[in-house]
Queue: 2 jobs
Job 1
Amino acid sequence: MIDERALIAAAAEARTRSYSPYSRFAVGAALLTASGKIYTGCNIENAAYGPSNCAERTAFFTAVSQGERAFTAIAIVGGREDWDSFCAPCGVCRQVMAEFCQDSFRILLGRSDGAVREFTLKELLPMRFGPENLQE
Ligand code: THU
């Protein structure tokens, strides 16, 4: 099993690479694969606003583009100056999680004072619409 502190530390490290000149809200995510590998991501904003990408989706798309399909947990940290409040994933990122992850997928929210809150994907996205709905 993972060391949740290590996963949160990886998210905090990724946060330092956030490109967020418009919101000044920097987010980092660290995604754990079933085989124990970690893929990280940060939010990447755009002058046209719409093309901006959240840290969680950066991590998922990086991992999937490298051939990964099985994930067990993600750690997320975010905030302006610091990451002293919990940063919950947006609805779009929850839907991306639902594409690749089971209901038991763990979502760890970290705070710089060491506090951690943990949710399952089912808790944050109940009664989801996913690939299973399109099976014939
Ligand atoms: N953001 C994330 O990257 N992940 C979240 O969980 C919440 C929001 C980003 C999007 C945007 O770049 C900035 O934070 C402010 O919304």
Job 2
Amino acid sequence: MTRVFSGVQPTGHLTLGNYLGAMRRWAAVDQHRADSLFCVVDLHALTMDHDPARLRRLSRQTTTLLLASGLDPDVCTVFLQSHVDEHTRLSYLLECVATDGEMRRMIQYKEKAAKERDRGGSVRLSLLTYPVLMAADILAYGADEVPVGEDQAQHVELTRDLAVRFNQRYGHTFVVPRVTLPGVAARVMNLQEPARKMGKSDESGAGVVYLLDEPDAIRKKVMRAVTDSGREVEYDREGRPGVANLLEILAACTGGSPQALAGAYESYGALKKDTAEAVVEVLRPVQARHRELCADPAYVEGVLRDGAQKARAMARPTVDAAYRAIGLLPSVERTELMDVR
Ligand code: TRP
């Protein structure tokens, strides 16, 4: 069976963009058609300035929201990256296969590092090596497919390069994965700056609908979305990005097509009103399930414990094989453990 791996960073509150662009599809399609793992990548959240208490809260909340959005731990594996040591064990080996030039060419690194330096801050070394840890996430599980947003495609490309290089040098060890990008309509843009994606780490939340926003907050944000000059409701991504974004959100929530929906509206106001209600309705069951799960923290803990156990069992043989292939002697302790088995 195809194996799917994806990860979410607990660096902010999850947004409508995360839900429509990825999570909804993971729950409705991926977990049923493939052997899939969804990982809250908490180690990645340490690559930028962070607050430990906030990270703990967000790691729990991100997990709970993944479950609330329909990921079923009986069908797929939901876990925290830091609970499975194989990620960092493998990451080091891959650092011995990757080059520093490769790392410095990563677009996301260049952007994030430049921003940090502009602010007068320093750049953590882990920000540079982050793509290697991401490669380890994927390769440890022999994933065939990695569903991510376009901004992560370069990292998956690097993962492929590292897998091929390792296999050529040290013998076949890793599956070479491929990226799977979501459809166009799944790209939700910031309501205030429709040229930018609706990200969970955006500084101002005015253009970002969070999954846990109250219905009235959602309505306000959608009603205040920037639209474009002009009056007719037309679907034109280049010329009218604000209106196109609303049409795409409405289409993603109701199952229509943005082109067809455009014809049904006479004014921006009516389009905003319907879009707001559609978003409120799409998020209603997710929020209800989230409330139930929050009332049962022992259940969520149990999911994470079982998830880590399942994940570890999948990753360990591959990572052990990589240790042997690269020339490290098996530790006596590990060998003995194997003999007992
Ligand atoms: N880097 C990804 C992001 O920022 C998150 C991530 C980490 C990931 N490891 C992964 C995604 C492995 C897919 C597979 O969105």
